[in-house]
Write a structure and sequence with these properties.
- This protein is of the alpha+beta class.
- The protein has nine helices and six strands; from the N terminus they run ααββααααααββαββ.
- A four-stranded antiparallel β-sheet has the order 4-3-6-5. It has a two-stranded antiparallel ribbon with strand order 1-2.
- A hairpin with a 5-residue loop joins β1 (33-34) and β2.
- The longest helix is centred in the middle third of the chain and has 38 residues, at 75-112.
Length: 239
């Protein structure tokens, strides 16, 4: 079995020799044996114990508390819970960092598409990024709820053509019209638009938005702030 000196143990755990000696004086890392010359020698179990101590110290757990944990009948259970907790914290931090990195990439790519760099440009891009996921989720919700309605439409038309029975088409109309009204109101209550001229975010009337010429991400509207009429960028505007 391997034996480690104080210096070797400290190097393996990326701590100072003084730290190892301090843990010895506190009674939480006592060397397994002493050499004939009086040098402290540590075993593999001591190495594992030091790694656990270092981990617990990284969690800002006091030395006295570590001493108590290691004296427990089943310290591994407490340490397991701490590890799971730290794993959860780190996973959340990684997700948060990834989200920030995605925002930076979007901002970088968005600025490349701007003819000139300005604070207004950054503001527009930031507004777009802020509600991008929510807007995408809402659009998918509309698509998914629209699939049964579309399927009913196709079925009713085919049934009418093949069998000459028209009442399924009437049922589709009775379903499709209320569905269209509800979905349209919900959609336009949760979106706003950025004017390309004054860069203000505004909400048009439901009538204007519904009948306006549009693309998947823009709609031709009249800005309520400056009066500009043209294609405005759609952004999330819900709560």
């Amino acid at each position: 079995m391997s034996k480690y000196t104080t210096g070797e143990l400290a190097k393996l755990c990326s701590v100072t020799v003084r730290t190892v000696q301090y843990y010895d004086t506190r009674g939480i890392l006592i060397p397994s044996e002493l050499s004939e010359g009086g040098r402290r020698l540590y075993s593999e179990d001591d190495l594992k114990r030091l790694k656990i101590i270092c981990f617990l110290r990284e969690l800002d757990i006091p030395i006295d508390a570590i001493s108590q944990i290691l004296k427990e009948e089943h310290p591994e259970k407490v340490i397991q819970l701490l590890i799971e907790q730290q794993e959860s914290v780190l996973s959340d931090e990684i997700s948060e960092k990834k989200e920030k990195l995605e925002k930076l990439h979007e901002l970088k790519n968005g600025l490349k598409n701007k003819a000139s760099f300005s604070l207004d440009s950054i503001g527009d891009i930031a507004t777009l990024m802020e509600g991008k996921k929510k807007l995408k989720k809402m659009r998918w919700m509309m698509i998914l709820t629209g699939i049964p309605v579309t399927a009913l439409q196709l079925f009713s038309i085919i049934f009418w053509i093949v069998r000459g029975i028209w009442w399924p088409f009437v049922i589709w109309v009775l379903v499709a019209v209320p569905w269209g009204i509800v979905v349209s109101r919900y959609y336009f209550n949760h979106v706003k638009y950025i004017c390309p001229e004054c860069h203000e975010v505004f909400k048009p009337t439901l009538k204007e938005a519904f009948w306006a010429n549009h693309t998947p991400t823009t709609r031709k509207l009249t800005c309520t702030q400056c009066g500009h009429k043209g294609f405005c960028v759609e952004v999330w505007g819900g709560d």
